[in-house]
Amino acid sequence: MTAAVKVSGVGKAYRVWQHASDMLFEALAFKRRHAEFQALADVSFEVLPGSVVGIMGRNGAGKSTLLRIIAGTLNATEGTVEVKGRVAAILELGTGFSPEYTGRENIYLGGMCLGLRRPEIKRRFDEIVAFAEVGEFIDRPFRTFSSGMQARLTFAVATCVDPDILIIDEALAVGDARFQVKSFDRVREFKRRGKSILLVSHDMNQIASICDRAIVLERGRVVADGLPQNVCNIYHKMLFSPKEAVLEAPGEDVAALTAVTPQVSEIDGISRAGEARSDDGACRGLNAPSAATAERSDRPDRYRYGDGTARIVGARIATEQHPTVGRLKCLETYNLVCRIQAMADVGPSILGWVLRDKRGLDLFGWDMQTGDCAPIPPLAAGEEHEVAVAFRANLGAGSYFVTVALARPDGHKLDLRFELLEISVFGSPEIFTTSITHLEPRLVRSTRRLPGPKGPSSA
């Protein structure tokens, strides 16, 4: 399949002068007085038609610079970008709009900047206004619009041109919840129609829920590229782990961690080879009746960080009757049992866990501190401790993943293991098969309404 966007070895360097006079001196004396800031370096990737690619990175990582080069509003210092099809880009709030023009005038201005003729904009005008929901403000100056209204109108104009490639740089973050739902529905519609979307966001749940692939930039370079749930874990580690306190598997290679793998058993990027490996290297078959919940087989330590003074060395799902259960039944109660080992003397600690769906979207989280529970008592080096947390499986049928964390009461991470457990839930005939949660509904009233009294006769 031919790529809609192909980025090959793109780099961007900016010249930086300490003083304004240095620029003039350099131009007249032909002596270098500037330093170079490398915003991007050797960035390469492809975007296929019908795919949504998320781009993440800390502030200053080069995300906006990259999108501007792809959109054609900025030239690269080196490398090439090949774009096939019409591009619509929302690079910032109110892109291409004049604050002094009215909303109506800006619709025509923005549409023409995107290559539409005036008659085409006129035909789509009502659709744009209806989507943006700014009808009563349409003839007021754009500067008087709220940030949410500006975002809605910008997005409506950019998507009305029916682009082949849509580029969005955090422009949706300012909209209200209702507008975000509408916007992402439109993004999904574009995807179904074979359009390509590039989306910049700091929201990992947003990236995991809508994107087919994710990329992390750091200091202008691609440090992770692959499946969203894997890349989001790496981005989380970048954001929250102290660099000097990261637990890594020996010889860990980021490229290997994020490589896109075929779908197996409808779980993206997770190869279920019939076994799960625990910390001591022992394997157990997943096909055994009591082993439908197991630690992930694809190197559990790959998504892990903490200072290592205490480690989470095991986790399982159990009941009072069975130490390890098979598939979970909807609405039944189970225990999440975690085994902790102190590698050095460690003070009181807090255990927490998060449940995610197969795309990496957080569904539920709990820890001993927010649950108003006493912390785990101090442990001596070599000592082990076991924690069991009861929960009710109010879940629809499907596969889910449990991330477990151990931290000090001040939040400092001792050990965090992403997606340590995979659990399988079989649903209930009482709920729709597409449900991801069970709200335990019950009918409390079904009342027949009688017609109201008739009005006075006209006879």
CATH class of the largest domain: Alpha Beta
Radius of gyration: 27 Å
Main sheet properties: 7 strands, mixed
Oligomeric state as shown: single chain
The CATH topology of the largest domain comes to Rossmann fold
Succession of helices and strands: EHEEHEEHHHEHEHEEHHEEEEEEEEEEEE
Assigned CATH architecture of the largest domain: 3-Layer(aba) Sandwich
Any idea what the CATH superfamily of the largest domain is called?
P-loop containing nucleotide triphosphate hydrolases
Treating each run of at least 4 consecutive H or I residues as one helix, how many helices?
A: 9
Tally of separate domains: 2
Regions with pLDDT < 50 over 5+ consecutive residues? 248-294, 296-301
Q: Got a strand count?
A: 21
Structural class: alpha+beta
Strand content: 25-35%
* Separation of the first and last Cα atoms: 75 Å
Helical amount: 10-25%
Inertia-based shape:
globular
| Overall mean confidence score, pLDDT | 81
Descriptive key words:
single chain, 459 residues, alpha+beta, Rossmann fold, Coagulation Factor XIII, Chain A, domain 1, 2 domains, seven-stranded mixed sheet, six-stranded mixed sheet, 9 helices
